[in-house]
Amino acid sequence: MTNPASAPRALIMAGGGGTRFWPRSRQNLPKQFLAMRGDRSLLQETADRLEGLVAARDLMVITGKAHVGRTREQLPGVPGDMIIGEPTGRDTAPCVALAAALLARTDPDGVFFTCPADHVIEPAGMFRKALQAAAQVLQDHPNAFVTIGVPPTFPSTGYGYIHRGESIGSRLGVEASKVRSFKEKPPVETARQYVASGEYLWNAGIFAWKPRAVLEALGRHKPALREGVLKIAEAWDGPNRDSVMAEIFPTLEKVSVDYALLEKHDEVVVLGAPFQWDDVGSWLALERLNPQDAHGNTVQADHVGVRTKGCVIVAPKGRTVATLGVENLLIIEDGDCLLIARKEDESAVKEVVEELKRAGRADKL
Amino acid sequence: MTNPASAPRALIMAGGGGTRFWPRSRQNLPKQFLAMRGDRSLLQETADRLEGLVAARDLMVITGKAHVGRTREQLPGVPGDMIIGEPTGRDTAPCVALAAALLARTDPDGVFFTCPADHVIEPAGMFRKALQAAAQVLQDHPNAFVTIGVPPTFPSTGYGYIHRGESIGSRLGVEASKVRSFKEKPPVETARQYVASGEYLWNAGIFAWKPRAVLEALGRHKPALREGVLKIAEAWDGPNRDSVMAEIFPTLEKVSVDYALLEKHDEVVVLGAPFQWDDVGSWLALERLNPQDAHGNTVQADHVGVRTKGCVIVAPKGRTVATLGVENLLIIEDGDCLLIARKEDESAVKEVVEELKRAGRADKL
Question: Most exposed of A14, B5, B121, B184 (fewest Cβ within 10 Å)?
Fold first, then answer.
């Protein structure tokens, strides 16, 4: 039944909204469309990274309906009808389920990789190697869900963890193990124990699986969701694609793929990521992803600093930013907004967005 | 010889350059042309303040040659040829000397008031009262130089001081005294003694005098300067006004009126200012001159603050400034520049300007 020779496909999940990069990310310009280093957006980097393993014509991108146009602009190599707009965000399970249903129409047993559109991963070659290793696992275990876990470098309380179990050997030098359990974002003490034990990996939301296996698991654990996406897939090539999508998709259960599928599946395999990973979770990521000047400032702007240390400074072309006597600030100008925050408050940027909402400033969101 | 009934005239000295209000003040837009509260520029406020005492047609404004156009725009009531451009800045003595020489042509014994264009003074009525009192002193002492000194409110090391001597009685309720001496900007210990003694006033650069007396004093103390301005005055109504001005003015000694005239004159009288005075010396003046929000922020911008205290925030229309967790910052956006500084470093804003010069960024100055 399986056809190991068929070319792998990939789903890029580009549905993120996100307020942590305000004012650069806005409702109509979420983080995945932004370049965080160099010129390519995170979404473009994600597609670039798959190049050589998955052809552009075999990419599927699911994003918010409002962002389909921008996605097509940024990824001109991806066939237009492989860029799909969700009428409303329903978290990751309906997204993966829809992709599985659509891909099953042509090749239910072909591997499809699944990854978020807004992470930074280096080097790309090791990322592809890990996915190839995952595909090899699927040759032996066609019903498995394979996930790539990231070895933790600090006791993060912001990520989920995967408890690695018994080894099933390595593929292409990448160690594969059964998954014992998934753990929600832990308190810091627990996170410390996880890291110290060496048995835990961060859940980075990167998967390899087959449409048939995903649909079968949905049938067991989320039958209504399976029904819904199959109806959409049935109508896909007819005249009612848009209306059926608009009618059914918003009714699908809003649930994460981790909760709906991974945690419930009986055959989940985790590979230890052989690459550097950053989820670009907030403005401080710029500091990790870019070089600093002699005073520890991360600068993407025309900047003149006097006694300025450890700041992250971003401004558009044409603007000159002068700083005097300040340390550890985020100074971010974008469009018609300017954000000045303490670096240590970076995770509270959403409070600014909430404050803008309260103040009725939808135009600035 | 004196004609006490003649209408008083006034010289507004608007030659300031100044870097302490960068980025709002630039080489081509010095502080006197900026509004620091409300809509009127400091220059316009200065002219407004004299209204009722000196008619607009009797104002003379001396500014930098490059700023004549803007001055005429801002003060449409002042006759165009009473707005005079200095080819190069030569400090205040040549400015006062030229005014005296020009005014002497029509009324050498008429009072002329002299004041800087870039201070804030409240209330205007008390300012006019002080000038009227000064004019009354000149009725009795036509050769005197009368200056208005400001009672010090803190031991400033940034202002010059006037040591008040023997009283010569009050005029219109304003106490007048002989001046014992002028003191340069003192160290803080000395400044404390000055303030504690009650015998010292700040030198605010506000004067009342007569053209004849100024020219006579120049003849004694700065004869070359007198010669120069008389030559310019002689050519003023002929075809060579501009060429003579351009030729002679830059050769005049660059010296302050305090040093050239006040400190050397034998008959200097000081009146204690019955008004509030602010020299608007730096960005912190905005805090003194404007109300604060509930968190002590001085805001001239569309501002959304989360845990933000004691900041001074200025940005143009259309910009939204969001602040998060920051205290006591200056956040000033103007034109193509943005300044972020610690409030306590406000007197060091000139270092930013110097840094821009070093970096060859004349376009930002």
Answer: B5
